[in-house]
Design brief:
By secondary structure, the protein is of the alpha/beta class. It folds into 2 domains: 174 residues, Flavin prenyltransferase-like (Rossmann fold); 207 residues, Rossmann fold, CATH 3.40.50.10300. Helices cover 35% and strands 25% of the residues. It has 14 helices and 22 strands. An 8-stranded mixed beta sheet has the order 13-12-9-14-17-18-20-21, with helices on both faces. Strands 3-2-1-4-5-6 form a 6-stranded parallel beta sheet, sandwiched between helices. The chain has a two-stranded antiparallel sheet with strand order 7-8. Strand 2, helix 2 and strand 3 form a beta-alpha-beta unit. The chain is elongated, with a radius of gyration of 24 Å. Bound molecules: cytidine-5'-triphosphate. The site of cytidine-5'-triphosphate (CTP) has 15 residues, from helix 12 and strand 17.
Amino acid sequence: MKRILLIVGGGIAAYKAAELIRLLKTRGYAVRCVMTEAAHHFVTPMTLAALSEDKVYTTLWDLKDEAEMGHIQLSREADLIVVAPATADLMARMTAGLANDLATTLLLATDKPVLVAPAMNVRMWGHAATARNVAQLRADGVTVMTPDEGIMACGEYGPGRLPEPPAIVAAIEATLAPAPPKRLAGRHVLVTAGPTHEPIDPVRYIANRSSGKQGFAIAAALARLGARVTLVAGPVMLPTPHGVDRIDVETAREMADAVDRVLPADAAVMVAAVADWHVEPSQQKIKKGDATPTLTLAENPDILATLARSPHRPRLLIGFAAETERVIEHAVAKRVRKTADWIVANDVSGDVMGGADNSVHLVTEAGVESWERLPKDAVAARLAERIADALEAAS
Ligand code: CTP
């Protein structure tokens, strides 16, 4: 029997924890509950105790509890810790590694997988601090579900509602499923991601809209399959995925040098939106009073094409193609021109750059496969499996 330690945070959605416990019990899970102090304002320990058929734990300072079972023991006995609902405050405390109540102490002291189901006001969910905390928790290896969108208890509309209990159960089952086989163990994979910045003067630069999300998701997915991953990242505000070696660069030429240094690799996935041109930067800030400046552009090295010709060419070389029209046609031509093995083509005319989803076409020698629109994580997971297939077939 799998044991779930359910931490119930103090939000209006705490009432849904009762339904979650009921669903888990009917599926044969043992559920033990911990409530934060704030959660008591929304649901009673009696309700959760009756449904979980167990004692409910609420404080670090209960002498009787400590005598019967040290608080650390609570998480040791669990197969999975689920935080539902996770408030903005609780997630912030988790991110900071605080241990100022029973819930956060358990979360800091555990080595068990943690699944977080957030619920909060739409503006709190959209706040930069929460976004930063969610990204950091994910980088720390915590699974953070995306909240549902809809009418909220506070009358506002938008994302922030607790995912429905059946969806939380599905996420619990996915988290407890055995880890994917480490199909890429012993392989080194290079990933480039993000934009490059090409300085004009000490305060200005040429950039593009790449967020780095797709490349970082690919690096994370490859690491989950056991690969040693080197991620060469342009300037982005993203945390380093768990288990990935990261090298930060700014310009295309720095990216080319970094790529060169980390070879050899079994495979390379060039997701970066590398600037095609640079300018010779002015040493001083260009002043407005001077004559209107003219930028003279010089071509950057094509990192992918250079790698394709190099004696260290990885066995599997994958490029990305960001296109705004005739996507497949351009990608097919780009694969041949750059002598890449595969090109992953995406249409960036919509909200792909910076967005959460991507719809891609995988262009290989064998033809073109169009994948349905998927979250960037799912695109990454599927591509990582395909890379594992290809490397296994080649060896
Ligand atoms: N790329 C690269 N070095 C460059 C430019 C691009 O390594 N200087 C890589 C990208 O990482 C991507 C692929 O080449 O994997 C295609 O990038 P893209 O910008 O779509 O192609 P370009 O060659 O720049 O062609 P164009 O901008 O004309 O479409």
